[in-house]
Amino acid sequence: MQPRNNAQREYLAALGEIVQRIAASLGNVAPQALPIRMYIAGGTALHFYTGERVSRDVDAAFSRRIALPENLEVAYRDADGAAQLLYLDRNYNDTLALMHEDAYDDSQPFALPGVDPSVLDVRLLSPLDLAVSKLGRFADQDRDDIAALARHGLIDAASLRQRAEAALTAYVGDTARVQNTIDIACRIIDNTRI
After folding, report:
1. Cβ pair 98, 127 in contact under 8 A
2. Which residue intervals define the domain DUF6036 in the entry (predicted)?
3. Is this prediction's pTM over 0.85?
4. Spatial separation of the C-alpha atoms in residues 73 and 86, rounded to whole Å
């Protein structure tokens, strides 16, 4: 994905620096354990798909448990030239999100300059799985993100419903609330794409 403008280039460079620091910390990892996959979700993935909403934190999961290095924060300039800080959210956890069992397998490669994918393979959740991941919490920002993905023609209601309901079969407990959020999300998509 090519940056759309200078602000996105700055954001991409900041993300690249964070990821390079993580990759550098993997220098002593046994070759048979590589590559480590880094799956980016949340506002950072949304930003690269749509150019909308700039997230200050990077939500990412990894294919293996890794000891993250310190200093995973990078300053950069936004579109208005104001100083911003991008950081890896060390508290991100995908356990409670609605996530299809194939979400990581279906993620999309995301090349970053200076990052060797044979060491750290950076990937973005697909637009569809990114939308599904928003259904667990389903706060106003999550609704806006789903609308943005629909506005850019990256998701449709039927595919979201199918993927989300398939993901829901792996969950235990009362799923009525999530079923309701699926219905609402599908209405948001249908209303946005009109």
Report:
1. no
2. 22-179
3. yes
4. 6
